[in-house]
Prior knowledge:
Structural class: mainly beta
Radius of gyration: 19 Å
Largest sheet: 7 strands, mixed, barrel
Amino acid sequence: TTLRTSGKVxxxxxxxxxxxxxSMGTFGEIYWKSGDKIAVSxxxxxxxEFTMKTGGLTINGVDGGIKKAVFAGEIxxxxxxxxxxxxxVECVKSLEGDxxxxxxxxxxxxxxxxxTEQQEKFASPMVALINGSTxxxxxxxxxxxxxxxxxxxxxxxxxxxxSSDERMICGEMALDLSQTxxxxxxxxxxxxxxxxxxxxxxxxxxxxxxxxxxxxxxxEMNTFDADGNLSEAKTIEEDYKxxxxxxxxxxxxxxxxxx
Length: 259
């Protein structure tokens, strides 16, 4: 298919395979779904949204999920198709030359992370380079994924805080699109908070996925009660690989201490 670079444009987007035996359901799905949108850059660094076409060309994976799909959008008059596409659209911050900046949230809530309508905002960010000669683009994961399974949550738990003295782990993340290996390695802030609120429940097991810069560094995981008092601290030392290469898988037990 001939690639149009202005006006109404279509891109055929695939997603790289992830080398893991982990179930890829909530957070980090490796398949497209109906209604998905991607952010596509224009030649001036601005972005427009493209939407997955229903009834268009799709290629399914072995379990029926959509591995490749057509996305359609319109490049504004006076502009042409740019060099990169990003998913999810919520994480796009800016594009200046070859430097793409993504926004990784520093505050999350258990409510949002349990809400299917909100989950995509915190999903594994992916980037695809656009070659001006073909409509085929391939999305690649650019961050590391840390899986934390939290069980036996005390009802008085207010929040969990992840921080690092060695690396900025959230906020604005810059990627150099001219590099062979495109990955986020440094952010602008060093602390992520997960607010539990009414989701703190001794009978629940909560799966938490955090997306972090790629690299070898340690994290401090601190647990606070509803009044902001520190109740438990834990150090996690990991070599955080790009999400498609390996997932950190940490099982963290919060015991009922009867506060």
